[in-house]
Amino acid sequence: MTLGNTAPGSLTTPFPSGYAHEWALVDVETSGLVARRDRVLSIAVVTMGPDGERTGEFSTLVNPGCDPGPVHVHGLTRERLSGAPEFEQVAGEIEALLRGRVMVAHNAQFDYGFLDHEFSRAGKSLPVSRRLCTLALNRRLELPTPDLKLGTLAAHYGVQQTKAHDALDDTRVLAGIFGASLREAARLGLALPLVPCPPRQNARFAPSPPKTPCAYRNPGRLAEGGPLVQGMKVAITGETATARTELVARSVAAGLNMVGSVSRHTSLLVTDDAVARSAKARRAAAEGVPVIDEATFLRLLGDVRPGTPHQDPAVPAPRAPKRPEPAVSTADKPLVGRRVLILGGPHADAAAARTRLVELGGSAAVNLSRGVTDVLLLAEGDQDRRMARVTELGLPVRDAGWLAGAGTTDAPAPAPAPAPAPAEEPSHPAPLVLPRGGVTDLPDTAQQWHLTANWAPPANGEVDVVAFVLDEEGQVTFDEDLVFHGAPENPGGTVRLLADGPAEQTITIDLAALPPAFHRIAVAAAVDGDMTFGDIGAVEVTAAPGGGDAPLARATLDAATTERTLLLAEIYRRGPVWRFRAVGQGHDFGLAELARGYGVDIAD
User: Which of 375, 433, 423 is nearest to 399 (CA)?
Assistant: First the structure.
């Protein structure tokens, strides 16, 4: 264990005004990736004052009392950890360093989640009210780097890295990256992605134990007088003479697919409610779903016929990410290479301008970043608070005629070739820009994929990103396959929600671990209160492999005006291939009705 207050490696210039907080930079090494199951093996904390000076550092190994996991990654063996203190023995010192400070980490939700669980096991509350993720901050900056991994950012900012996956060295590197990132954010006038944190994880939000999806395809509805067939979707409502848990267990063992809600895909509903008072019974009547009583169901359960198993598609060999070149000449796409921020105008006009921009080969930004090459002003765009920063940066400011003249002799000239990247920053292809409805194959499904949505921070209200894990009929298998802020991962842990900013949220998907019963993951956003997506404006969605790799594809979606929910994107199977589709379909109704369409009845 080390503990000091010597302010090692102080920054040469203070943090910018307006970005000054008390900070606690944190890194943990762990026995695995799942906070509710795995344990912290080592932790380091570097504290920094509002002026950017480092005021102290602390690090210790932690004896987890379990297998340390991937030793080849972190180098922490049972022998090295055997004499280390248990977490509860150092929790008080860590608590003192975190209290009253903003917690900073690279992929902060990961570190926060592990500390939250460790403090809970020690009978304490994690004293963090706000956190900041340097991965999210640098993603918003749009740096000219091939990825946003800690080592890559260290090379970009000129920060020396001595020993990767060592908690103390990683935290010292993080301190250098953080200071440089704050100064770049200040130059662009970006708001920091500070995330409010709950006082402690609520046990009722803990993920449910993993459930096994039904191994058989749905054969359809129960025929009158016919037998049950493996794979049939069966819902139960009302009181049952047989204990509900026993009835469900027997049905699952027979190969039936027990579902919590009724939809047009439900094979039958089991109920003794003759007057159809429950929501499930009313829905079954509306959809024409067969209804049988418990006694009949138990009789049929004694002779369930064989079903058709789900076929696991052949897994294609991993391919290197491929970003296709434009299929047309730059004369037809004069804005290839341009990243344009559109300010002002009614929502419909701004949406039309962004659509036209993509048609001309450019991409639309939703925030001011290093990647922005031009600013397009629509009506009252000069009143936007970002215009002062645009002027300081010397960015070209265009009017509406700039897009209107494209394709004529007055069309915008192609963007100039970018300056050669420094030696430590390998060049990398720009993301493929997809229009609404655009599709591209995912080239490497052996690793996790990250779907990130970001938008301009609203003055009031919040936007929530959710994911539905769906079968071949576009329905959830379990209610818990709705992933949202209250239940941020599905039971199998294959789909997770990461929230690291008021204007950015990410859904991570482990495609290689998804059972063959799952065919599609739909990602949507919903607004609260009286807001609509016309108030929010454009939402950008990117698809990227790994945790910090550059995006493969991006789309700026503007389909919604009065709508309160917006289907952003889908990742779905097409034979052995997984594909990404930018959707952009809006709905006037709220999240509850959207969920009902996927087979989750939130109110029932």
Answer: 375
Instruction: Tell me the CA distances in angstroms from 222 to 194, 235, 255, 256, 513, one per residue in order.
Output: 52, 12, 15, 12, 32
The pLDDT of residue 424 is above 70:
no
The string of pLDDT tens digits covering residues 157-191 is 999 988 777 888 999 999 999 999 999 999 998 88
Whether residue 395 is found in the same domain as residue 448:
no
Residue 519 belongs to domain spanning: 434-597
Pair (248, 188) in one structural domain:
no
The total number of structural domains in the chain stands at 4
Contact of 356 with 342, CB cutoff 8 Å: no
Q: Are residues 576 and 461 in the same domain?
A: yes
pTM of the model: 0.77
**Does the pLDDT at position 252 exceed 50?**
yes
201 close to 505: Cβ distance less than 8 angstroms:
no
Q: What is the pLDDT of residues 356-370, one digit of tens each?
A: 999 999 999 999 999
On average, the pLDDT of the chain sits at 85
- For residues 506, 373, 433, 355, the Cα torsion angle rounded to the nearest 10 degrees is 100
| Region of residue 396 (left: phi > 0; alpha: psi -120 to 50; beta: else) | beta
CATH number at residue 365: 3.40.50.10190
429: three-class secondary structure by DSSP: coil
How do residues 198-231 score in pLDDT, each as one tens digit?
Answer: 665 444 334 445 567 888 999 999 999 999 999 9
> In 189-306, where does DSSP find H-type helix?
244-253, 279-287, 294-301
- Three-state SS letters, 574-599: ECCEEEEEEEEEEECCCHHHHHHHCC
Do 160 and 19 belong to one domain?
Answer: yes
**Residue (of 148, 50, 171) closest to 370 by Cα position:** 148
Q: Are 590 and 466 in contact (CB under 8 A)?
A: no
In a shared domain, residues 34 and 178: yes
283 shares its domain with 372: no
User: Quick one: 370 and 258 in the same domain?
Assistant: no
Query: Is residue 227 situated within a structural domain?
Result: no
Q: The CATH number of the domain where 36 resides is what?
A: 3.30.420.10
Per-residue pLDDT for 47 more than 90?
yes
Assigned domain for 418 exists = no
pLDDT for 25: 97
Residue 331 is predicted with a pLDDT of 61
What are the angstrom distances between the C-alpha of 429 and each of 220, 322, 337, 410? Answer: 46, 9, 11, 29
Pairing of strands 54-61, 40-48: antiparallel
Region 117-127: mean pLDDT is 92
Q: Does the residue 492 lie in any domain?
A: yes
With respect to residue 604, please indicate whether it lies within any of the assigned structural domains: no
